[in-house]
Amino acid sequence: MNPSETSRYVRLRVDLVLEVTDATALTGAAHAHIKADEFMPDEERGHAEAAVRDDESEALAYLVDPTDLVTDIPGVELAQASWSSEPAEYDPESMEWDLDEEDGEHDEEPTGNA
Questions:
Q1: Concatenated DSSP letters for 6-36?
Q2: Beta bridge partners of 105
Q3: Distance between CA atoms of 67 and 11, rounded to whole angstroms?
Q4: For residue 92, which of 9, 40, 39, 19 has the smallest C-alpha distance?
Q5: How confident is the model at residue 83 (pLDDT cuts 50, 70, 90)?
Q6: Measuring CA to CA, which residue among 67, 56, 63 is closest to residue 30?
Q7: What are the domain boundaries of the chain?
């Protein structure tokens, strides 16, 4: 690819931490979503229902579709998408959760001899 072709693509990274305040409501909504999916094969439906029942992060993954964030944006076409959901130990005071940092990169000037 030449530089003008690569500049057409943008990677949008979104990292969310959600607190489950009502597991019953979350699981119920996920079950309703799965039940309403007319294109889901019965075998997959059974697996999905079991996964949602056993894991709140799975329930969330069935309800959240990040592609919905970009479908109505004019001038862009979704080229690729993937997402996952997993339980996380969250400590807002921890440096690990500092949202001002990107992928461990710092805005500090390098030190040392040039």
A1: HTT------------S-HHHHHHHHHHHHHH
A2: 102
A3: 13
A4: 19
A5: confident
A6: 63
A7: 15-91
